[in-house]
Amino acid sequence: MAFVNGVVPVAASASVHRRAVCVRMSEQDAALSRRAVLGLAGSAAAALALAAAPISPALADGAVSSATKYRARNLYGSRIFDAAPMIEKLVAAVNAKNWDTVESIVGKKGPLEDLKNSFTLFATGAYPTDKLVQTDLIGNTAVIYEMAGILRKAADQQDQKKALKAVNELVKSYKEYLAAGELKENPFADAPGQAWSGDFSPLRKTGKSPYIE
């Protein structure tokens, strides 16, 4: 290799190699760009297809499984129906002016207050799509607990007249709740064998037979 005026000549093969490398890198970049564009296009197409897909009928009408309804009926409905003796005891206490017993039942820490969630969960769980029945149940629940508040005040004041009026309204709403929710005595409650309501039987937690059909 000759040196001319102190300049080192560059071999032609090196120049060709650099051009080849540049060409190959450009081709790789182009391939990557094409893949990225195709990937974005595919994602966009999938998103559009998902958006255009019809809603499943099971989701569109807010369908709830039968198991969910049975669970609400068996767990919460049985507790509500089993409150009947407590309601009768409350009526007897008002008639006898037994204010301590009245307070023990309708007090903030009493058994009636403990049932408040059961009334609500039964209404929304057993009748999730039947808004007419659900509204009826929730309305009766509101009256029951409004009357319970009046009974607390009547017990403090030992006002039997006020207490009698409130307890009568409470009993009326309780009976209407049972009727609207179709809560009745279970005809198989005393029958031997497997629990009639299967996995959702309240027997698993309470040891009592559910008084519902």
From TrEMBL:
List the residue ranges forming a coiled coil, or say none.
none
Superkingdom to which the source organism belongs:
Eukaryota
The residues covered by the Photosystem II Psb31 protein domain are 63-167
Per its UniProt record, what Gene3D superfamilies does this chain match? Sodium ion translocating NADH-quinone reductase subunit C-like (1.20.120.1740)
In this chain, the stretch annotated as Disordered covers: 187-213
Pfam families recorded: PSII_Pbs31
Query: What InterPro entries does this protein map onto?
Result: PSII_Pbs31, TAT_signal
This protein's name: Photosystem II Psb31 protein domain-containing protein
Q: Which organism is it from?
A: Porphyridium purpureum
